[in-house]
Design a protein that fits this description.
Blueprint lengths: L5 H10 L4 E2 L5 H9 L6 H8 L6 E4 L7 H6 L4 E5 L2 H10 L5 E5 L11 E6 L9 H14 E14 L1 H4 L5 E9 L2 E10 L4 E10 L5 E9 L3 H10 L2 E8 L5 E10 L7
Parallel strand pairs: 1-10, 2-3, 2-5, 3-4, 5-6
Antiparallel strand pairs: 6-12, 7-8, 8-9, 9-10, 11-12
GO molecular function: methyltransferase activity
GO biological process, one term: methylation
Organism: Amycolatopsis dongchuanensis
Length: 261
Amino acid sequence: MIAPPGTAGRLAELYGLRPRPLYGPEGSAVYDAMCRHDATELPDVLRLAQGAPGPVLELACGSGRLTLPLAARGHEVVALDSSAPLLALLKSRIRDERIDVVECDMAEFAFDRSFGLIVLAASSVCLLDAGQRAETFRRIAAHLAPGGRCYVSVLDLAGELTTGPRPRERVTVLVDDATVLTLHQHFDGRRAVRTTSLFTEAVPDGARALFTSEVAMVGSAELARELAAAGMVVQDVHRGAPGEQVRVQLVCGLAGGGDDR
């Protein structure tokens, strides 16, 4: 795997580290440690699921950050992800909940049933290129029950991160039990790419590792146009607190179908 750009790449060179995929066998546990307790989107997803006309389909479900709370409240959930290691973590946490776990790319899913709510959270839509997003949105529209909703979240980035002659970088230090995690985000506006790297250092032995992933920089306005092209309309928009990276939640329904609650 090619070394990531910016400070993360320099750390890889300094410590002789081989960058590994963030969603691979080793990186999945690190990603899970960073994200599993993040409840940022949970209240809105639970609200939408209540009274939804059918089961919930969660795309890019990961290790179950939203899946498990949804199922714990009695919702039938189909949890889909392409990462076998993350799905293994999810399966290890399932008790008696009604969860159907499916390993599949989110641009390729096909079911012989419809769903009252389809969730694509945590800016996972940015893992897809434009063609994959178009196919994913087409499949979402084809699987929505009448009156059903689609929930998509994304980060709207400030202009200073997406424009300019040179890439920008942001670094955040996190701590999980006996591991220090440093999150490196490298924004390349000319390529419209955000590279996310996690540098981990265990305490006290100092063992180090580097995990990385590259995603597209796509904003909520562009997603709204792509959703419309797939036959859906944005019915509600929730924007997070102002800042360089603003979480935007889009709630959609089928164009010309269902109610507008």
